[in-house]
């Protein structure tokens, strides 16, 4: 297609353009769906914890589903694992070099454990080299459990959970606009999401073939960073506005949704096609453990009652640079 398989610049442009289309489409989908739900008089809490929460993970979800159905499991899982690593080490680490990210809210501790548990669950279901339809269903069921716990926290007015505050802010912003704007946003978002996902998968698999590396490497690096950009932007803005307590809730919530919702959906999609989702060997040898190490480090930092400041920023961001370097050393480019 347009020389994608022969040209690295074209393949890279497909990935970049796909990420832009994907993120723009995801934003439109959230705004359209949330506004439509509010017009149907659905409770704001229900809208925030379902449509908005799932909508923010829609880019990762459609990419992983498309990759799973296209026979590119490395992209599907690399997107999930790479995003979770980037969210902790890059998304929190780099902004912490210029501002402090608070970790003292009670909800943050619970969500840090959930994020760590999600990572452990992904490793467990992947231990035999595949994620079956049943295992994908179990992962997806766990996101319902997580949302239910968030709902119970909200109903008990425990508003110290920054993830709930983040969801509420997104829901309020997304639900404004006329009926025409709502419908246009919804339709365009629905069209752009799969289009962007397919562009990314096409560009990612072509780039991997041209560079002589696995598609997992593309998923763990370019794709993971690209789909983590909304979280990065949120953290940077929160730090600059001195509202950084909200930032960590966004990151932890994203990591939980990536594993349970996105990983579960990818496993179910592969199962619907009559296949188990294969797990590349590299993940069990290296990447899963980096993901768990980053999640454990963040959880320990939070439970020690320490904010993510400059020291943590140096440690986290330095760790991410080391991880990317190790990844490319282990997977040398072969033109």
From TrEMBL:
It is a multi-pass membrane protein. Gene3D superfamilies: NCX, central ion-binding region (1.20.1420.30), NCX, peripheral helical region (6.10.280.80). The keyword Membrane applies. InterPro entries: K/Na/Ca-exchanger, NaCa_Exmemb, NCX_ion-bd_dom_sf. It is found in: Membrane. Pfam families: Na_Ca_ex (PF01699). The chain crosses the membrane at residues 12-30, 42-65, 85-103, 110-126, 138-157, 178-197, 217-240, 252-274, 286-304, 311-330. Keywords: Membrane, Transmembrane, Transmembrane helix. Residues 13-150, 183-328 form the Sodium/calcium exchanger membrane region domain. Signal peptide: none annotated. Its main location: membrane. This is Calcium/sodium antiporter.
